[in-house]
Amino acid sequence: MKQLILAFFLGLSAAAHAETIHFVTEEYPPYNFSTDKGPSGASVDQIALIMEAVKLPYEIEVLPWARAFALAEKEPFHCVFTTGHDTERDKKFKWIEPLLVDHMIMVRGKDSATRPRSLDEAREFIVGTQREDFSANYLKEHGFQKIDYAANLDSTLKKLIAGRVDLMMTSEKTFETMRADGKPVEAALVLEGKQYGIACHKDMPDEIVAGMQTKLNHLIAQGVQDRIFEHYGIRPAGIRQAAK
After folding, report:
1. Cα–Cα distance between 46 and 219 in angstroms, integer?
2. Does the pLDDT at position 132 exceed 70?
3. Taking Cα atoms as reference points, which of 113, 109, 106 lies closest to residue 129?
4. Which of 159, 138, 172, 156 is nearest to 241 (CA)?
5. Which candidate, 93, 51, 114, 128, places its Cα nearest to that of 201?
6. Looking at CB atoms within 10 Å, which of 29, 144, 186, 240 has the fewest?
7. Do domains 2-100+196-231 and 102-193 have the same CATH topology?
């Protein structure tokens, strides 16, 4: 009965809101990235299945992260992903989650002498990240002063490999993808686990958010999310041993 009621209201919503839902993201493989055929990745595939179920028009665009984040914060019918959910961001958006649960990790260049054993030691080094990224908030909240900002993950990675920054922050699953692609990086310090999702403009109609959340719940319960992860080579177990 609840599903019938939800479907009814979603139908009303689709009729009342002809606006296309704009999903914006960044280059952040394996979750979201550009290809010749358009946006792809583990999060993109989940969004496509969610929107197929709720039957609302949508588009996905890959942008610099700071611009994507600002659009979702300021423009109705915009959502940004794959977005870390923290206290600072909580009230700014309506959330559909989790697209994934992952650990943050500090990464060093291969064979680098930079080997922090704790957050206190890591504060002594230059850490690369992206503006408006979840990791940037984390660094500021934990008292880091030597933060180097780049436009995107690839730029930060290039700085790390070139020795222009000592460490960079990313998710452990993204780190695994970097390593599988042959990037010369090593785990330096594993941090706590975090939840990532879709962050929509705060005026997004509640019935649309509820419909999207219901479908995501089904993807998780039916094992579809895990199969999507496997397709992109994302393993459930991360890099605990590599970080020791």
Report:
1. 8
2. yes
3. 106
4. 172
5. 93
6. 240
7. yes
Distance CA 101, CA 175 (A): 14
Spatial distance between the Cα atoms of 107 and 186, rounded to a whole number of angstroms: 6
Q: What is the CA radius of gyration of the chain?
A: 18
DSSP one-letter code for 20:
P
The confidence score (pLDDT) of residue 144 equals 96
Residues 6+ away with beta carbon under 8 Å from 224: 49, 218
**Class of the CATH domain delimited by 2-100+196-231:** alpha beta
Q: What DSSP element (H or E) covers 211?
A: helix 206-221
Domain 102-193 annotated CATH 3.40.190.10: yes
Structural domain spans, the chain: 2-100+196-231, 102-193
pLDDT tens profile 63-91:
999 999 999 999 999 999 999 998 889 99
d(CA 10, CA 17): 10
pTM here? 0.72
Calpha distance 223→160 (Å, rounded): 36
Query: What whole-number distance in Å separates Cα of residue 2 and Cα of residue 194?
Result: 30
Distance CA 91, CA 36 (A): 36
Instruction: Give the integer Cα–Cα distance in Å for 192 and 14.
Output: 39
What's phi and psi for 135, nearest 5 deg? Answer: -65, -30
Looking only at the bridges linking them, the beta strands covering 127-130 and 167-171 are parallel
pLDDT digits 0-9 by tens, 176-193: 889 989 999 999 999 888
